[in-house]
Amino acid sequence: MTDPLRLGIAGLGTVGVGVVKIVQQKADLLAARSGRPVTISAVSARTKSKNRDVDISGYAWEDDPVALATRDDVDVFVELVGGDEGPAKDATEAAIAAGKDVVTANKAMLAHHGQALASAAEAAGRVIRFEAAVAGGIPVIKALTEGLAGNEISRVMGVMNGTCNYILTRMQSAGLSYDEVFEEANQLGYLEADPNLDVGGIDAGHKLALLSSIAFGTEVDFDGVALEGIGQVTIEDINQAAELGFRIKLLGVARMTGRGLEQRMTPCLVPENSPLGQLEGGTNMVVLDGDAVGQIVLRGAGAGEGPTASAVMADVLDIA
Ligand code: NDP
Ligand code: HSE
Asked: For residue 13, which ligand has an atom nearest its CA?
């Protein structure tokens, strides 16, 4: 068997802990699938003393993600800190400059700097992978880049923020208040560090911008997404829509028009009996229309420890 693929993981929160668990618990399976062992050399987070639900005593610790990203015993830098600027971006740039491949779940960073980071990685002969950045556990990036590679895509549509879908569906079905439902989503590990990114529609807009760029071969254009969050949606709106046979969803739609790429992420009415209307809780759904394949519907957990770590590991194994 060849040399191990050695990971350096920055960020040991919901997603980082999920990734460590998979590496520890599925070592044999990962080695069998990739043909080489996958190991962790070093980790980094803000507070070393925090109890993390996994044993990290066997890994070197770095306070600074940049130091982690440039270590000689790290082949792949796994960025799970979050934030569009600051340590996540600094360390990702440092990793690429040091000749490492990068796996990240950070849609905020990619929506704002993805083009520059991808160019830097290409120039360095490295890759930056981000399956986990869009729709959590749903392998939609691979669906577009591999499974649907022979298609021209005419439309990308979907529910891409688990928190918003959780709030919109649980308030109605369980008769809970916004605050109660918000806390449940928090306990499930769905929320961004800044929850306004979720309820403001920004997180979903980041994801739509990333998907559009892949589907239509364009540059990532987050500023081009017409955005509206769920902050104005009331329980009365939700109940009134239900009386008329509809559900309210934070729905993203991107399509290529005669005037160029059109992208919007806004609350929409969808028929309650449609697949989108029946989407409950933190589940995401992405609908892709291709000229050869027709319509493809992908549905699955859009957030949380296991589903997101699953997507991170898919990228790690590709690199391995
Ligand atoms: P968390 O907030 O749970 O974890 C963030 C981690 O980063 C923590 O371990 C924190 O350290 C560490 N961290 C924060 N600041 C620094 C710093 N300056 N230096 C070193 N470490 C730092 O986030 P998530 O795990 O939920 O999310 C991580 C990324 O994954 C984000 O980009 C998010 O958007 C993305 N993502 C998350 C999903 C989810 O379901 N949660 C789904 C898809 C993508 P400490 O623990 O010590 O505070
Ligand atoms: N906060 C995000 C959500 C996490 O709720 O969908 C997954 O990207």
From this structure: 1
126 alpha carbon to ligand 2 midpoint, in Å? Answer: 27
The position carrying tokens 């600051």 is 86
Asked if residue 87 has its Cβ within 6 Å of ligand 1, the reply is yes
- On whether the pTM is more than 0.90, the answer is yes
Asked if 192 contacts 82 with a C-beta cutoff of 8 angstroms, the reply is: yes
pLDDT tens by residue, 190-249: 999 999 999 999 999 999 999 999 999 999 999 999 999 999 999 999 999 999 999 999
Whether the Cβ atoms of residue 286 and residue 300 lie closer than 8 Å to each other: no
pLDDT in tens, 261-298: 999 999 999 999 999 999 999 999 999 999 999 999 99
Which ligand minimizes its atom distance to the CA of 130? 1
Cβ proximity of 227 and 201 under 8 Å: yes
